[in-house]
Specification:
heterodimer; A: 256 residues; alpha/beta; Rossmann fold; four-stranded antiparallel beta sheet; 10 strands; globular; B: 217 residues; mainly alpha; Methane Monooxygenase Hydroxylase, Chain G, domain 1; 6 helices
Chain lengths: 256, 217
């Protein structure tokens, strides 16, 4: 059984990823510190989402996808034969751009993962559901309609529900792929606050196209371009005085 | 016109205004020195009028910077340029204040003969004008070396100040009736020396704009 109780920093060395002949990630080396928010930015198709997906092996089922390099979370080798992929995904949760609640009740959405882990006791599930919804700052809004369908919630609520659903598995790392791009500013604000709160316990890696969002919430920012990691550093530095001309051109909107 | 083009035009307008504001303060310092040398009380008094114009420039540039920050949320060099401009105008406005203060001193001075030749004070005035002009130029031209030059000129300014100070102390020692005028001239020298300090501040912002690091010299 792999142990996710140690340090949860992410260390990637010499990462190369190919979709067939297409070289999608080129020699990526990056150290992502634990319990911080790290933003991945870059134009569409630059490889940032592909990189994010490596971290909980979401590319495993992509046909013709070949990955080389060293990928570690703490001491755990993500691609080691001994690494149980279910345990990996339990500990490395993911939230997507489009909220994707299951077509079932709010309660059952949250209880879904704990049930698959074998938790059956009602009181225990109740506790997990309440805790997860509280951590995702949505408990007060849904506590009186837990048995109602999750599909009846607003987009912003659905996204926080999805975050709560990830939290129910008690992950150590949360991957977020443009989690607020479909949300209004109020919902976006709530999710940003949530990230600030969650990073006390979790390592968060977020893909975002919103530069201001990166400056607001990320401790570190990585800029990807055409499959390469161009620049990586403290967010304040990247946005006030980037070291690479390409970063400068991208964040100031001078590309193209 | 693309959003980026509009932004670049905004930045250009901002710089043009900065230069105009700076030219006004140069003229004020020049007038202050002329008024002093010629004991021209009317010219001395008129500088305060120009100072109002400088204050208006400060408000206008400040407003422009804030509008850019609000609408464009600039980052990287764009961000540094706008925040530098926003910080610089405080120092440029002080150039004007100091010149206007010298003008006021000239206006209130009794029209008697000077107790000494104003050679060093004139040199300070010319140096102040040079530092003022080049500090703002260094920002406009993105010229870090020019900013360094301005910073090093401040040593010259400080030396001149000490020279003037020593001369005036000597004159007071020789004849206590020199004291009143000596103190006024001392204040003029101090104002000019302060202009040098503000020019150094502007040059430091140029260096921040070019390097991303803000150091105090």
């Amino acid at each position: 059984m792999i142990d996710f109780t140690g340090k949860m920093n992410i260390s990637v060395k010499d990462c190369n990823l190919y979709y067939g002949d297409f070289h999608a990630l080129k020699n990526i080396n990056i150290e992502i510190p634990e319990k911080q928010v790290t933003a991945l930015i870059g134009p569409s198709g630059c490889g940032k989402s592909t990189f994010l997906k490596i971290l909980n092996r979401m590319n495993d089922l992509v046909e013709d996808c070949k990955i080389t390099g060293s990928f570690k979370i703490g001491n755990i080798d993500i691609f080691d034969k001994e690494t149980d992929i279910n345990a990996l995904r339990k500990n490395v949760g993911m939230v997507f751009q489009k909220p994707n609640p299951f077509p079932m009740s709010i309660y059952d959405n949250i209880a879904f993962a704990p049930r698959t882990f074998g938790i059956k006791k009602r009181s225990e599930l109740d506790e997990i559901v309440e805790n997860s919804l509280r951590r995702a700052s949505i408990w007060d809004e849904v506590k009186d309609r837990l048995k109602k369908s999750a599909l009846g919630m607003s987009g912003g609520q659905q996204q926080r529900l999805c975050i709560a659903r990830s939290l129910a598995a008690n992950p150590k790392i949360l991957l977020m792929d443009e989690p607020t791009s479909a949300l209004d500013p109020i919902s976006t604000g709530k999710i940003e606050e949530l990230m600030e709160e969650l990073k006390k316990d979790l390592t968060i890696v977020i893909v975002t196209h919103n530069m201001q969002q990166a400056t607001r919430i990320a401790d570190n920012t990585a800029f990807f371009l055409l499959g390469e990691l161009i620049e990586y550093g403290a967010t304040d530095d990247i946005f006030s005085s980037p070291g690479d001309e390409r970063t400068e051109r991208y964040i100031t909107g001078r590309f193209g | 016109m693309s959003i980026r083009k509009i932004f670049e035009e905004e930045l250009q307008n901002l710089k043009t205004q900065l230069v105009e504001m700076c030219r006004l303060t140069e003229q004020m310092i020049s007038d202050a020195i002329t008024a002093l040398l010629q004991m021209n009380r009317d010219l001395g008094k008129s500088i305060a009028q120009t100072d109002k114009l400088v204050d208006e420039y400060e408000m206008s540039i400040e407003k422009r910077c804030m509008r850019i920050l609000l609408k464009q949320q600039p980052v990287a060099r764009d961000f540094r340029e706008v925040s530098c401009a926003l910080k610089m105008i405080t120092d440029i406005e002080r150039f004007g204040d100091q010149a206007s203060d010298i003008g006021d001193l000239v206006y209130t001075m009794p029209g008697e003969r000077y107790i000494k030749k104003l050679t060093h004070i004139t040199a300070m005035g010319n140096l102040a004008i040079k530092m003022v002009r080049e500090s703002v130029n260094s920002f406009i031209k993105n010229d870090e070396n020019l900013a360094d030059t301005v910073i090093s000129l401040d040593d010259e300014m400080d030396e001149l100040f000490v020279t003037v100070q020593n001369e005036l102390i000597e004159l007071i020692r020789k004849d206590s009736s020199n004291a009143e005028q000596a103190i006024t001239l001392m204040m003029v020298a101090k104002y000019l020396e302060r202009i040098g300090d503000h020019a150094v501040n502007v040059a430091e912002w140029t260096k921040y704009n070019e390097t991303g690091v803000h150091l105090k010299y």
